[in-house]
What does this fold into?
Amino acid sequence: MVLKVKIVSAENLQDVLDSQLIWRRREISSLVTLAKSSSFPVQVGILRASVPLLYAHWEGFSKECFVRYLELVSYKRVKFKHLDPAFLYMASLPSLARIAHVDVNEGLEILGNLMERLENTNKDNFKKKVNTRSNLRSDVLKDLLTMCGLEGAAFEADADFIDREICDSRNEIAHGSGSAPTMEAFLRRRDRAFTLMTQLQSIVVNAAIATSYKLAA
It folds into this structure.
């Protein structure tokens, strides 16, 4: 369900993420409707299956937010010296990993290359750098936000919910254990999870509108 639309503006970033959120909400809502109309044993099975699906939407939508935001920054073709340092960090990770394991002369050469890179235009969408580690816990989310030059502490108040109710519950069921939540508990979890997804969407769209990826002039 990924829309093959090139991200060139904050407006179409908003549109693509809106579309992503709509179909994800509908899919979860369809399962809830089915569960409500089912007999108790079947309802339990549907609710249990809904837990890993909710996690899949949490991870999938969050990844889409980051990938699409970085795609927009890449499209803008801004020089690294005018971008938030996070982008130079991503572009320089291989060199930074090497610098601790080389002699002084080679280390200075690496630093010189990094300084020259400041004059280069960012053309990388860094898609491969968006790694949810197949377990998008609060610490992973914080790293992804920071990596994109966004506010890493944005979801600190929700860390326990993300870790326990979205991730841990999914992991337990995926590994063959874990019980189904009640209908009421699942609905609360669903609503809060989608609230967080909407919040993440707002963060990346607002950053795109404000061109927060650029250094202040």
Remarks:
- Residues 40-76 form the longest helix (37 residues).
